[in-house]
């Protein structure tokens, strides 16, 4: 979900690079606990992340005050780029915890052995379906659904029911209406490809995409272009005179349209085709060779705490993974619950991702 927070636009943009998310302490403070031989030398704990990590200042400061650690966030591009850097620096990591590896990249991270196992305090509250690594090398932090979104006004004006399933998208009434992202260059684009693999299997997804191409699907490089330029239902798309009323985005997109609408609408102008979704789960892990291992463990505990889990939806527009975390009213009023998203096992993705993307590119783009 490395592109998820882009849905919020400039309002949620965070400075890139190393950001100290604390009002106290300008640098690494030496531990002054007398006689504490096992105390860490530094009271700074560094979180390496993709660019979309965000947390409310007051929530983070509460953790820092309670734990005694100062948190620094090292933002490193999109999820794939950030993970690649950690693999290259394996054993001598740039930080203590890595956040942002999702189920499409999980096996790659685990196979490269960049994490130290740690069972976070509070893991018992995480819903079992999100615990994909029984060795606890990674801890589930959030989930989100990549889904087709639709422009409500377009379909109301045309008196056409919006599509609800992947099968619907290849019907004649939806010809030349869908824009999606390139699966080779975009996280939601890859997720949509995986949704088709989950639905139609390894033997059937190519036939589906052949039909989708024949039905006029448009492919663009990334989410920003698809959602804010080509999609007629978003605020950005309206300004850009986008003419595609269907777009691959996220189930959390409609609440964002409400939150940042000017003026704020009473109802989301966009809807979600709930039978088109692929579920992403994001994880964090203690990096092998971390300089501040106790601080890293405390930070992982914090990421699955109720305080962080309930703060997260309006900061990163993703869903909590713990049983006790409540969603904000914006999500419950304007969002949707995807009951049966498509899933593909991480090990299956790892084994086939490259060849699937190459085959998809040859079939759809070239």
User: What general outline do the C-alpha atoms trace?
Assistant: globular
Order of helices and strands: EEHEHEHEEHEHHEHHEHEHHHEHH
For the CA atoms, what is the radius of gyration? 21 Å
Overall pLDDT level: 88
Per DSSP, the total helix count is 14
Main sheet, how many strands, which sense, barrel? Answer: 11 strands, mixed
Helix content: 25-40%
Number of strands: 11
Distance between the termini: 27 Å
Query: What share of the residues does DSSP label as strand, in percent?
Result: 15-25%
List low-confidence stretches.
1-40
Structural class: alpha/beta
List keywords for this structure.
366 residues, alpha/beta, 11-stranded mixed β-sheet, 14 helices
Report on the structure:
By secondary structure, this protein is of the alpha/beta class. Helices cover 34% and strands 19% of the residues. Strands 1, 2, 3, 4, 5, 6, 7, 8, 9, 10 and 11 form an 11-stranded mixed sheet that branches. Helix 6 (205-214) packs parallel to helix 14 (346-365). Residues 1-40 have low confidence and may be disordered.
At a glance:
With 366 residues, the protein is of the alpha/beta class.
Write the layout of secondary structure elements.
Layout: E1 18-20, E2 44-49, H1 57-67, E3 70-75, H2 79-88, E4 97-102, H3 106-111, E5 115-116, E6 139-151, H4 152-158, E7 178-181, H5 187-200, H6 205-214, E8 218-220, H7 223-230, H8 235-239, E9 246-250, H9 253-259, E10 270-287, H10 293-303, H11 306-311, H12 313-316, E11 319-320, H13 329-334, H14 346-365
Helix pairs in contact: 6-14
